[in-house]
């Protein structure tokens, strides 16, 4: 089980001083965070894509290019690229270029996103939500297979044999499908033989076991080798010196973030009791000291029939840069070795 970090590059207010961290400083801090993740041996670092005022990650390939120039070992990727609202030709060109810059360290994770701002921003209809993703994923995979493509669809002008350049160093470029809880999404990824990145933001991770089994059975039915059907998890988490410290450090920003989303979507505001319950032994949040987080990762991997990688999403609008750096350090130097020893 490989471990990494995902970031949504949230705008941050320093919890000690109340000072708003400007976007220039936040980007500088982010690159330091990625460099540290590389230094302490973490496997991956992913950048999300949002088109909202509280996030600075609307152009992940630009951030990833800067990160590639400052790192040497860590895999870099999207978490996720909102393919439904993008042109697959440009997405492939950007990530192929990133793959060359990074010397083959790029993973492209594509999905439909958990927010909808990208659709009106780029002149797309939410009524085409599923059709857009299906069609654009088909084109992206066709481009990955061949540098010259003949293709036609409903949401983009046809291609009549044009070449798509550059080609990536990795052949093929790794393309993962990011999914939530829709069975059809798990089946589609399995039938296509694409690795699966499951976003688990609530409930209990073990509840996803039937869906992951559905993915594996669909893949086997389509004739794909088991080693192609990799499973990754995107989860909320944080590592600190103690479990109490981890929870107390993360909660203020978590509450702020999810209170805003809950109001937008008509849900009840989240509570500390809800947060603590979801941070418990069977909950979706991976919070705690290194031993606690490592034990939970191993247990969840067993419950889901094996997990290839887990990325902890540590973005928080009230999380101090120094605390995040310490969390990354503990994840790489203390959690990862424990997980490796337990799963070897």
TrEMBL record:
Q: Which residues form the Luciferase-like domain?
A: 21-305
- Top-rank taxon, per record: Bacteria
List the GO molecular function terms.
monooxygenase activity; oxidoreductase activity, acting on paired donors, with incorporation or reduction of molecular oxygen
GO cellular component terms, alphabetically, are: cytosol
Instruction: Tell me which PANTHER family the record gives.
Output: BLR5498 PROTEIN (PTHR30137:SF8), LUCIFERASE-LIKE MONOOXYGENASE (PTHR30137)
Protein name per its UniProtKB record? LLM class flavin-dependent oxidoreductase
**Which keywords fit this entry according to its UniProt record?**
Monooxygenase, Oxidoreductase
């Amino acid at each position: 089980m490989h471990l990494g970090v995902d970031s949504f590059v949230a705008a941050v207010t320093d919890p000690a001083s109340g000072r708003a961290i400007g976007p220039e400083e936040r980007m500088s801090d982010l690159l330091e965070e990625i460099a540290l993740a590389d230094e302490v041996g973490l496997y991956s670092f992913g950048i999300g894509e949002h088109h909202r005022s509280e996030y600075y990650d609307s152009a992940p390939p630009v951030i990833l290019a800067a990160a590639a120039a400052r790192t040497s070992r860590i895999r870099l990727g999207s978490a996720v690229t909102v393919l439904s609202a993008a042109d697959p030709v440009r997405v492939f060109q950007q990530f192929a270029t990133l793959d060359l810059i990074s010397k083959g360290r790029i993973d492209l994770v594509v999905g439909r996103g958990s927010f909808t701002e990208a659709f009106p921003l780029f002149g797309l209809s939410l009524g085409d939500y599923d059709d857009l993703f299906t069609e654009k994923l088909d084109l992206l995979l066709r481009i990955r297979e061949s540098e010259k493509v003949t293709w036609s669809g409903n949401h983009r002008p046809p291609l009549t044999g044009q070449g798509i350049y550059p080609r990536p160093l990795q052949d093929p470029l790794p393309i993962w499908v990011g999914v939530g809880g829709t069975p059809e999404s798990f089946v589609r990824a399995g039938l296509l033989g694409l690795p699966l990145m499951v976003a688990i933001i609530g409930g209990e991770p073990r509840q996803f076991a039937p869906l992951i089994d559905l993915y594996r059975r669909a893949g086997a039915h389509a004739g794909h080798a088991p080693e192609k059907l990799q499973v990754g998890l995107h989860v909320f988490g944080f590592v600190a010196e103690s479990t109490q410290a981890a929870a107390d450090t993360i909660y203020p920003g978590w509450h702020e973030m999810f209170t805003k989303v809950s109001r937008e979507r008509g849900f009840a505001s989240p509570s500390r009791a809800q947060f603590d319950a979801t941070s418990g032994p069977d909950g979706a949040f991976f919070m705690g000291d290194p031993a606690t987080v490592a034990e939970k990762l191993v247990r969840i991997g067993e419950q889901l029939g094996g997990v290839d990688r887990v990325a902890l999403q540590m973005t928080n609008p009230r999380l101090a840069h120094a605390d995040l750096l310490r969390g990354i350090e503990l994840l790489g130097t203390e959690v990862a070795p424990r997980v490796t020893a337990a799963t070897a």
